[in-house]
Amino acid sequence: MAVVKQEAQKMIQNLPNNCTYEDIQYHLYVVEKIKNGISRAENGETSSHQDAKGRMTKWLSN
Q: 2-14 and 21-42 helices cross at what angle (nearest 10)?
C-alpha cells in the first residue's frame, strides 16, 4: 500500500499549485481506471474490436 500512497503524493506534487480538491479527485480516479484497465488486459480480460464495436452501436442507437 505504501507504493499507492507514494504514487498519489507524486501525482499531487505534479499538479498546479492552484488545483482544487475536485482536480485531485479526478486525477486519482483517472489513474485508478487506467491501472485497472492495464491489469485487466494483462489478465486477458479484453474485448475484440468487433465486440466493442457492436456494444457501441447498441449504446449509441438508444
A: 130
